[in-house]
Design a protein that fits this description.
This protein is 20% helix and 15% strand. It is α+β, with helices and mostly antiparallel strands and 205 residues long. The chain has a domain of 88 residues: Beta-lactamase Inhibitory Protein, Chain:B, domain 1, CATH 3.30.1450. Strands 3-2-1-8 form a 4-stranded mixed beta sheet. It has a 4-stranded antiparallel beta sheet with strand order 4-5-6-7. The protein is elongated.
Length: 205
């Protein structure tokens, strides 16, 4: 009897397994593909372009096909001829140059050349023709053709108003010149000297 019951339970179990196992949708083996490594589709590199909308053409930037265009900005160079510096009227009988290593600068001029002199009188006082180094006009610069080098005169409205000294040879009447230390200048002029610190902190002006 027990044997019969065991056999019945076994049959019932087998039938249940078959019913449950076969109750799902049948699998169509024809559509089952073996697993393959994922591959990346071919890609195309497209140049990144600046859209025309940035330049004010909104209609072109909105749609359509983007076309890669390479443009080159042409640089047009123009050669500008230097402005003529001009010449000064020649002066006869200037004699010997008076500006030399012994010349000294003062608040009124340098040796015989005084501030406020006409250009003609200044050349006579210097004993040398002056040569313009900037275009002749309302304000321009001149240098003596003969005599001490390193001197540049400023001519404003036809008169000499300033002299620039670019040599250690020429000093003031007090002995101050290019290359002097701040201490030396203070010794010479004392409280008359006012200093201003340079923006970069490298010294005083």
């Amino acid at each position: 009897m027990r044997t019969i019951l065991v056999m019945l339970l076994t049959v019932v179990t087998i039938i249940g397994v078959l019913v449950i196992g076969l109750g799902g949708d049948p699998v169509d083996e024809s559509v089952v593909m073996p697993a393959t490594p994922a591959t990346q589709a071919p890609t195309a590199t497209v140049p990144v372009l600046t859209t025309l909308a940035e330049y004010g053409d909104e209609d072109t930037a909105d749609g359509g096909v983007l076309v890669a265009v390479t443009t080159t900005n042409a640089i047009v160079t123009e050669t500008v001829a230097p402005e003529p510096l001009g010449t000064l009227a020649p002066i006869e009988g200037l004699g010997v140059p008076t500006l030399d290593a012994s010349s000294s600068v003062s608040t009124v001029g340098i040796d015989r050349v005084m501030f406020g002199m006409t250009l003609h009188d200044a050349q006579v006082a210097a004993g040398s023709q002056f040569t313009p180094i900037t275009p002749v006009g309302h304000c321009f610069l001149v240098v003596p053709e003969a005599g001490q080098a390193g001197l540049t005169f400023w001519v404003v409205s036809g008169t000499v108003e300033r002299v620039d000294v670019d040599t250690r040879t020429i000093t003031t009447r007090s002995g101050a010149g290019i290359g002097n230390t701040e201490e030396r200048i203070r010794e010479l002029f004392g409280e008359r000297i006012h200093t201003t610190t340079l923006p970069d902190g490298s010294g005083n002006l």
